[in-house]
Amino acid sequence: MSSAAAPEEPPRPVRFGIMGCASIARKLARAMLLVAPTAEVAAIASRSGDKARLFAADNGLPAGTRLHGSYEALLEDPDIDSIYLPLPTSLHLKWATAAAARGKHLLLEKPTALCAADLDSILAACEASRVQFMDCTMWMHNLRTAKMRQLVADQSTIGDVRIVNSIVSFRADEDFLQNDIRIKPDLDAMGALGDIGWYCIRAILWAVDYELPKNVIAHRHPVKNQAGVLLACGASLYWEDGKVATFHCSFLTNLTMDMTVVGTNGTIHVTDLLIPYNEKSSPFSVDSNTDVNELATEWVPHPSKHVVTMDLPQEALMVQEFCRPVRNIRDAGGKPEGKWMTITQKTQIVVDAVKTSIDNGCESVDVVS
User: Is residue 92's pLDDT more than 90?
Assistant: First the structure.
């Protein structure tokens, strides 16, 4: 009589080390806890051991979470699969390449680098070590984004995309404008362009299926602080076939997170793109094949309203999506998925072009892939 087969062991969790105790790291630590046992916060590193201990306690991390008093110690930890890196952008090149060189998969906060050349070095290190790379543009992993992609791809609903507009802003208080790392030239030199302009540019590229524009022209009169860091700016993007996109990002105006995609047959509107009004319920509206009635008193048909519900918030879905290829590489000898590198690289290229246009008096800058 044959004995019953032994039960199959569940996959091991992806063991994360969080490098730095930035405010945004609290959100990702929670996301990792939400998707357990897919992911596990195995270690925290800070330049201060006391700060690491406080972070672990404040965020409800398990008692066994290892606490490191240096970033180097975290990278030398043999029980870490992946690094989540939320350090200031000026430190990304050093620590992201170091993490990849030690065989750690990399979940990197945006903006990913100060320039495309630095990002290229980070991606080359990931490729050399065959580790997975992904940036932390969280809204990309919202289930709403996949639903909107289906509609944008539907010729009968949206048609050919011709115009895209994106606005991301928030009204920063005086403490932010004086002390936040995002306004410090030695920490996050791109200011609003890197912090929230990144989202605008990613939204535009997403809408046109990541086709790079031919050229960009920054809008005149960008706002800078006394150190020369951008507090508000915008740009227009142009394609060979006549598509046009505009964006504006600002630390100085009311909270706004808009994306509008206009096609030949329809329009998609989103007003909470980055952070949904409710973390498990994401709305958007669609106008398709619309006109006005005979007396021009109302639209026909009215816009359709859609709400996509989720069991997990978008940052947890991002962690899940990152863990999937990491597990395949670690447990099955698979290869890293390159699409995330390509999407990040294209976003950084356009960010760089907008910054160059601003630095050159808002002249037109060709976008070179």
Answer: yes
pLDDT at 240: 97
DSSP 138: G
Active site residue 104: no
Backbone angles phi and psi of 357, in degrees to 5: -65, -45
Q: Do the bridges between strand 230-238 and strand 244-250 make them parallel or antiparallel, or are there none, so unpaired?
A: antiparallel
Write the burial class of residue 135 (CB in 10 Å: 0-12 exposed, 13-18 middle, 19+ buried): buried
> How many other CB atoms are found less than 10 A from the CB of residue 36?
11
Q: Which of 27, 51, 94, 110 is catalytic?
A: 110
Q: Say if residues 305 and 285 touch (Cβ distance below 8 Å).
A: yes
Q: Is the pTM of this model over 0.90?
A: yes
Residue 131, number of CB atoms within 10 A of its CB: 24
* Whole-angstrom distance, CA of residue 225 vs CA of residue 76: 39
Answer yes or no: are the C-beta atoms of 233 and 358 closer than 8 Å: yes
Q: What is the SS3 string spanning 35-88?
A: CCCCEEEEEEECCCHHHHHHHHHHCCCCCCCEEECCHHHHHCCCCCCEEEECCC
